[in-house]
Design goal:
Oligomer: heterotrimer
Largest interface: B-C, 92 and 69 residues
Helix content of chain A: 40-55%
Domain Thioredoxin (chain A): 35-173
Membrane topology (chain A): Single-pass membrane protein
Distance between the termini of chain A: 62 Å
Number of domains of chain A: 2
Number of strands of chain A: 7
CATH topology of the largest domain in chain A: Glutaredoxin
Protein name (chain A): Thiol:disulfide interchange protein
Radius of gyration of chain A: 20 Å
Number of helices of chain A: 6
CATH architecture of the largest domain in chain A: 3-Layer(aba) Sandwich
Distance between the termini of chain B: 49 Å
Organism (chain A): Rhodanobacter panaciterrae
Subcellular location (chain A): Cell inner membrane
Chains: A alpha/beta, B alpha+beta, C mainly alpha
């Protein structure tokens, strides 16, 4: 029996590796689940991209759910995500708030002029301090925030039609159901 | 020379490998000498075809044949010829081909030097090597073809990862693979011994030099990798406990245990099952390393581009080879504890404790490396395990080894002399304590540095005391047989290594500074004067090159040229400047201009003063040397010659049975 | 479409490679040398959330720069190392800690090696006891070679 121990130990390892291979086909290795899920979104107060003298705070956005989409002109994957936002944005049923991350305003505006602007509202975080409070570590990232200001869903990396259909829309529907009664 | 010939050669090599593995096994089982005789020519033929395939790939690189996908991905017209050769093993497919080539080099060496082994045993060993080759050849042919075409052929290729464009990196993979693959020989010996089941220990003596050489190569590969990371990555560290580093470190630790366990088994007949198990583990961990690096299950800075299909293939292969051999072990390993008895105070006991610590350390590294995966499985969220974990536990586990090491040689097999040990303890202990006290005045009370000096003295005096004892007590010519000389060298290496680690870690000075041309910074007793940055160009890069003049007490020490290179395809790579010395390294890395675009102004620089850091690799090289010297012991050779008659006798017995 | 996608991936890959291997060098106005050492030590123990496997100290990723600045600012305001770690964990989860805290989940990680050591140690002890009780020990090398080999070792001293 003792002699079989190494064999069984090794089989455990094989199971673990098999699991690892499967897990990595299902999960993005670069995505770190956010500890902020189902917690209140951090307070923020950021200038609008097009009217830098006006600021938008978390309190201003309470009362209606919105999708906060972190993007930047320097981010290659944002270009992949952008057409999806343009196509799906209007049908989501929530406000689309663009969060311009660590970007020169001029670059961001040029980028939006070129690619189109699907956002209902655009705020800019050039220094990137507020983004740290959101746990942002790259772009694109998207936060679904409900009417009470709670973060209900987060996606790291570009939103694809598949992610929108399988994850984002059900999350929005669940949020709407809760808000109903 | 079309690349398709290379593919064909690999397929033929696979067929020969099948013949090399299956026929001799059947032959050994049925006692059929004709079938057993297939082993050697088949192995030689396989090696020829693999070398041919490797040559074709190298030729494609030298001739800029960008119609080969792999060549187009990893080289371009401006890449110098020596890096085009290194590019052969610069990415997954080619490095796998190198793996296979090296497996064949070991097999051919085995074929050449196993003429005097019993025929049945030798053919089994070669057959097991063939089985391993079958797996890897199938892997490369079915999942990772290096000869795939890219049509239409591009005018120029991409680039070899600039990180790999460094002499250290050129030698690192071949050396590392020599070690990894070398453990396959010890593995094949123990599998053959299990298959034979004749409970003979002779195989251990035959396996010993092979294990030592493989371990020495692995040591060399790890040292080269560590040195490269230090010189090239620009962070001044020499070991990061990254999964890829751990993948090479685990077989090293187990191999270290194996070397010592083999000594017991060969000389005293004890621990036979353990030695077999360690042989299986050492090679399994080498395979596991290949899996970890190429399957993408773990995130690492250095991992190859991953592909789940490859992961599944290696996992299946791993399961068959390792699972199969562990089952064989469960069925056939010697069940009765054999060998000569020993007292509690004996060399066997200390070697056992050493083995325990090496095995536990390897298990700890494995656990820490895989824990992020376990975390995913147990739904703990993403977990990171890094230097603080390993750096805390590993020294704790190695402490008993360092403490016991000086006693090892003084202990006799079976029963040790206690008074002698007390004498060693007294002498080495007093020397270490005295030096530690003296050192305390020089190192500013850094406990780590004091411990470094103490362990250096403790280990060195231990080794020297034994060397002196041999000098006094044994007649000339027989004082230091190679096996013992190698042991002493390697143990000395441990002392040098430990001192290097502890001293450099505690006494290093690092500083990120902003420097305008003409400014001077004072670090670790040296004055670093920044003399500005100018442009420089190389064969396939252009660089901003800084000039830093180092002086000490107004005496010139060095002029250093840290670079920030931009390669053809836009990759940025820093080339640190290192002024090496026996007692200290000065190290400068160039950051960025403080004023973007103005390279003539102030720059950010990182300056290091790293005392004794070279001792880390020096210690490693001494260990490596010890391994090679050990393997050259006459005893291993002469015994093999003496075995011829016994082998012939054994074969006769075999035949009468059949 | 595929071609442009491949080119894009290539660009991204190269961008990452470029970032990964140009190390982070940032002079900061530390209050004193002790603070600089503390900063170096702390950032060595924290993992950059964006990178493959790099510390905050070594990474050149934009987020690593921002987080280093944040840590620097917090140090100026007198935050302790634990407070800084807590701050990062609250935003980026335990992933950023290279030193995973001891919880029910990481119990295996921290005590696993001890368990292995204890069970291995017990096995070794048992083996030593069993062997040392079996008969008298042969002290002379010449008398005990029957099992291994018929010839003694060359140096005549079975060391």
């Amino acid at each position: 029996m003792n002699r079989l121990l190494p064999f069984f130990g090794f089989m455990l390892l094989v199971l673990l590796f098999g699991f690892g291979i499967w897990w990595n086909t299902q999960h993005d290795q670069n995505a770190i689940p956010s500890p902020l899920l189902d917690k209140p979104a951090p307070a923020f107060n950021l200038p609008k991209l097009y009217e830098p003298t006006q600021t938008v705070s978390k309190a201003d956005l309470l009362g209606q759910p919105y999708l906060l989409n972190v993007f930047a002109s320097w981010c290659v994957e944002c270009g992949v995500e952008h057409p999806v936002l343009e196509a799906e944005g209007p049908s989501l049923g929530v406000q689309l708030v663009g969060y311009n991350y660590k970007d020169a305003p001029a670059d961001a505006k040029r980028w939006l002029a070129e690619h189109g602007n699907p956002y209902n509202l655009l705020i800019a975080d050039e220094p990137g301090h507020t983004a740290i409070d959101f746990g942002v570590y790259g772009a694109p990232e998207s936060f679904l925030i409900d009417a009470k200001g709670m973060i209900r869903y987060k996606h790291i990396g570009p939103l694809t039609p598949d992610v929108v259909a399988r994850e984002l829309k059900p999350a929005i529907a669940a949020m709407a159901r809760e808000a109903q009664p | 020379m079309t690349p398709e010939l290379g593919q064909l050669a690999l397929i033929l090599a696979l067929l020969l490998a099948l013949a090399q593995s299956i026929l001799p096994l059947v032959g050994a089982w049925r006692g059929n000498r004709a079938l057993m005789a297939v082993a050697r020519p088949a192995a030689a033929g396989q090696a020829v075809f693999v070398a041919f395939a490797f040559g074709i790939l190298a030729w494609a690189f030298l001739r800029f044949d960008f119609s080969v996908q792999y060549v187009a991905d990893n080289s371009n017209l401006a890449l110098p010829w020596y890096y085009r050769i290194a590019a052969v093993w610069g990415a997954h497919e080619g490095s796998l081909l190198l793996w296979i080539l090296i497996l064949n080099i070991w097999t051919v060496a085995l074929v050449a030097f196993s003429q005097k082994l019993p025929e049945v045993f030798a053919s089994r060993v070669i057959a097991v090597m063939g089985l391993i080759a079958v797996g890897f050849l199938a892997f490369i042919i079915f999942t990772s073809d290096p000869f795939g075409r890219l049509l239409p052929m591009p005018g120029d290729g991409a680039d070899l990862n600039p990180v790999l464009q460094d002499p250290g990196m050129t030698f690192h993979p071949p050396m590392l693979y020599m070690g990894y693959v070398g453990f396959s020989v010890a593995f094949a010996f123990s599998i053959a011994a299990l298959l034979g089941g004749e409970l003979e220990q002779a195989w251990v003596r035959w396996a010993r030099p092979w294990t030592n050489i493989a371990w020495a190569f692995l040591t060399c590969g790890i040292v080269a990798g560590s040195w490269w990371a230090y010189a090239e990555l620009g962070w001044g560290g020499w070991w990061f406990w990254d999964p890829v580093e751990n993948a090479s470190f685990m077989p090293w630790l187990v191999g270290l245990g194996l070397i010592h366990a083999q000594a017991i088994t060969e000389k005293r007949g004890s621990l036979r099952a353990w030695t077999i198990l360690l042989s299986i583990f050492a090679f399994s961990l080498s395979l596991l390393g290949t899996f970890l690096v190429r399957s993408g299950v773990l995130t690492s800075v250095h991992a190859f581009a991953s592909d789940p299909r490859r992961g599944i293939f290696i996992l299946a292969f791993l399961t068959i080879v390792v699972g199969g051999s562990l089952l064989l072990y469960a069925l056939r390993a010697p069940k009765v504890a054999g060998g000569k008895p020993f007292k509690v105070v004996s060399r066997e006991t200390v070697l056992l404790i050493g083995n325990l610590m090496f095995a536990v350390a390897a298990a700890m590294v494995l656990l820490g490396t895989l824990f992020p995966l376990i975390g995913d499985a147990l739904n703990l969220g993403r977990v990171s395990v890094g230097p603080p974990y390993f750096g805390f536990l590993f020294p704790l586990l190695m402490l008993p080894v360092v403490l016991l090491l000086p006693f090892g040689p003084f202990l006799r097999w079976g029963k040790g002399d206690t008074p002698v040990l007390k004498q060693v303890l007294l002498r080495a202990g007093i020397a270490a304590a005295a030096c530690a006290i003296v050192a305390a005045f020089f190192v500013d009370g850094h406990l780590k540095a004091i411990a470094g000096v103490a362990s250096l003295v403790w280990l060195t005096v231990g080794v020297l005391l034994y060397a002196i004892k041999r000098w006094r007590e044994v007649p000339r010519g027989r004082r230091y047989p190679a096996e013992m000389a190698g042991m002493l060298l390697a143990h000395l290496g441990v002392g040098v290594f430990v001192a290097g680690v502890l001293l450099s870690e505690s006494l290093s000075v690092t500083s990120d500074v902003r420097m305008a041309p003409g400014q001077t910074q004072h670090i670790g007793g040296y004055d670093f004067r920044f003399d500005g940055v100018h442009r420089a160009t190389g064969p396939n890069w252009r660089a901003d090159q800084g000039v830093v003049t180092v002086t000490r007490d107004s005496k010139a020490v060095a002029v250093m040229h840290p670079q920030k290179r931009t390669y053809l395809r836009g990759q940025v790579q820093t080339e640190s400047a290192v002024d090496a010395g026996v007692f200290r390294d000065l190290y400068v890395a160039l950051g960025e201009p403080m004023d973007t675009g103005n390279i003539e102004g102030a720059w950010s620089l990182r300056l290091y003063y790293k005392p004794f850091i070279r001792w880390i690799w020096g210690g490693g090289l001494l260990m490596m040397l010890g391994g090679f010297v050990c393997a050259g012991d006459k005893r291993f050779r002469i015994k093999r010659a003496a075995k011829t008659e016994a082998a012939a006798a054994g074969l006769q017995v075999q035949e009468t049975h059949a | 479409m595929t071609r442009s996608l491949i080119r894009m991936l290539l660009v991204m890959l190269l961008a990452c490679a470029g970032m990964a291997h140009a190390q982070a060098i940032e002079p900061m106005p530390f209050a004193d040398h002790a603070q600089e050492l503390r900063f170096q030590h702390l950032t060595q123990q924290l993992r950059c959330p964006m990178c493959q496997n790099e510390t905050l100290a070594d990474s050149n990723a934009p987020i690593a720069r921002d987080l280093r600045n944040q840590i620097f600012q917090m140090m100026q305001h007198g935050s302790s190392d634990d407070e800084i770690k807590q701050y990062l964990v609250a935003r980026y989860s335990n992933f950023v800690l290279y030193d995973p805290p001891l919880t029910a989940g990481t119990w295996l990680l921290w005590f696993g090696p001890l368990l292995i050591l204890l069970s291995g140690g017990a096995a070794v002890l048992l083996a030593i006891r069993k062997r040392s009780q079996r008969g008298t020990v042969a002290t002379e090398a010449s008398t005990d070679n029957a099992l291994i080999d018929s010839t003694p070792t060359d140096n005549g001293d079975d060391w």
